[in-house]
Amino acid sequence: MRHFDLSPLYRSTVGFDRLFSMMDQMANVENGTGGYPPYNIERTGENAYRITMAIAGFGESDLTIEVKENTLSIHGEKAAKEGEERGDVLYRGIAERSFDRRFQLADHVIVRGAALENGLLHVDLVREIPEALKPRTIEITTNTDEAKVIDQKAA
């Protein structure tokens, strides 16, 4: 597949930066650079989500999880252990390469925690909408006395 350079469009447009960034990300996924490690995103409740990543061979000390400006970044890098002798590998099927996976979080989504279990990294997310932004019902009242007073003043 061909790669399209969108950088000239960045210079000639205002306000479409996010659109072009999303197109760049899609191109990276199609080219195969965005496929490791594999992951699932699941809904675990009405406002709860979980990202599960398959990261066999990585330990807690090899992982870094960071949230900054609605972007969740998960970085993994295997640290070379000194003095450890490894035999000649005849076939390498378990990937131990470094990775950097980013997820764009919606507004009011926060990370509750992360757990590493059986080679799977689970990151729990919750959407917490502030009270001021939640929909509320407004009670309708009819006060006929006030309406009469207003009519009398106007007349």
Automatic annotation (TrEMBL):
The keyword Oxidoreductase does not apply. It comes from the Bacteria. Residues 30-143 form the SHSP domain. Keywords: Stress response. Pfam families: HSP20 (PF00011). SUPFAM superfamilies: HSP20-like chaperones. Belongs to the small heat shock protein (HSP20) family. PANTHER family: PTHR47062, SMALL HEAT SHOCK PROTEIN IBPA. This is Hsp20 family protein.
